[in-house]
From TrEMBL:
GO BP terms in the entry: response to antibiotic
Annotated GO MF terms: ATP binding; ATP hydrolysis activity
Organism: Actinomadura namibiensis
One GO CC term on file: plasma membrane
Membrane topology field: Peripheral membrane protein
Organism placement in taxonomy: Bacteria, Bacillati, Actinomycetota, Actinomycetes, Streptosporangiales
Protein name according to UniProt: ABC-2 type transport system ATP-binding protein
Keyword check for ATP-binding: yes
Predominant subcellular localization, coarse grouping: membrane
Length: 324
């Protein structure tokens, strides 16, 4: 469905270099990225700010042409065959809407039907289905400008899916949504992928989206692919360790246990990071022998810890992060 081989995208930017002089510098926004996404996959595309995610998506949707390398989506060259490709893919940007601001949602969706030349019968059927799944009925006749963010996002999803695309590309679809709207959108995407078989590429900073939805994640950092595989394997390969939260009877200086670093102290509570190689039971025993302890809890590193270590580059891999 998606094939990216050694894709590079550079931008030339002019920066002030002194009072009157401007120097040209080249930014390698995407710097030799290769990956494939097969039909029916649900893939998360992650990376810190400025890593190159939007630039990749713009190359996949034909908005930008790669400086070198090849990008193919649904067997097409997105930049050259942008209009034909548009009939096969749906794109949703969480930060902006593709709907007509002054029109009621229903009319906006009718215009989308004309743009994509969806036959009237198919449109009716599809609209009825999407209205049910996305719970659009209460606000179908409301102008888009009056919709809440969550309602607008559901409207945008409907607009992107009216022409039944094979691939849906989402850029931050749950940004700014409350927990209930997030749950509706996530539940919908899950069904779209599992029941309809729509391939989905999801860019997000919301790790809840990724944990709930994506069987595979791609992590991009400084324009290069830093990881490609499952979330479980990412957890296992990037040793973010476990966190031991110790409540002392009284506040005190950081505890001292060989091989363990105290990351944070807040009154009587201290956070100790345990690498995988350290036996937690032995640490607990050593602490109990030397300090007066009120409570101890052991927590697995969560996905935020794992990614923070991957982005900072201070992880230790057990194996090749790109070997899936
Ligand atoms: N049109 C442009 N001209 C110059 N530089 C650009 C342009 N678009 C992106 N860049 C630069 O390319 C790099 C990658 O940007 P990109 O928007 O792809 O990152 P991102 O991963 O989507 O970030 P974010 O999570 O903040 O949205 C950044 O350094 C950015 O400043």
């Amino acid at each position: 469905m998606i094939e990216v081989v050694d894709a590079v995208k550079t931008f030339t930017v002019r920066r002030r270099a002194g009072l009157l002089r401007r120097a040209r510098t080249t930014v390698r926004a995407v710097d030799g990225v290769s990956f494939e996404v097969a039909r029916g996959e649900f893939v998360g595309y992650l990376g810190p700010n400025g890593a190159g995610k939007s630039t990749t998506i713009k190359m996949l949707t034909g908005i930008l042409t790669p400086s070198s390398g090849t990008v193919r989506v649904c067997g097409m060259d997105p930049a050259r065959q942008r209009t034909t490709l548009a009939r096969r893919i749906g794109v949703v940007f969480g930060q902006r809407t593709t709907l007509w601001w002054d029109l009621p949602l229903r009319d906006s969706l009718a215009l989308v039907r004309r743009l994509y030349r969806v036959p009237a019968g198919a449109h009716r059927e599809r609209l009825a289905e999407l209205t049910g799944l996305l719970e659009l009925e209460p606000f179908l006749d409301t102008p888009v400008r009056q919709l809440s963010l969550g309602q607008r996002m559901r409207g945008d999803l409907a607009a992107a899916l009216l022409h039944a695309p094979d691939l849906l590309v989402l850029d931050e679809p749950t940004i700014g949504l409350d927990v209930v709207s997030k749950a509706t959108v996530r539940g919908f995407l899950e069904r779209l992928n599992s029941e309809r078989g729509t391939t989905i590429l999801l860019t997000t900073h919301d790790l809840g989206d990724i944990e709930r939805l994506c069987r595979r994640v791609l992590v991009i950092d400084h324009g290069r692919l830093a990881y490609d595989g499952s979330l479980e394997r990412l957890r296992a390969t990037v040793d973010a360790g476990r966190m031991l939260v110790v409540d002392l009877e009284r506040p005190g200086p950081p505890v001292e246990v060989p091989g363990v670093a105290v990351e944070r102290v807040d009154g009587p509570r201290q956070w100790l990071r345990l690498p995988r190689s350290v036996n937690a039971a032995a640490v607990v025993a050593a602490l109990a022998a030397r300090y007066a302890i009120a409570d101890i809890t052991l927590r697995e590193a969560d996905i935020e810890d794992v990614l923070a270590r991957l982005y900072r580059g201070d992880h230790s891999y057990e194996g090749d992060p790109l070997a899936r």
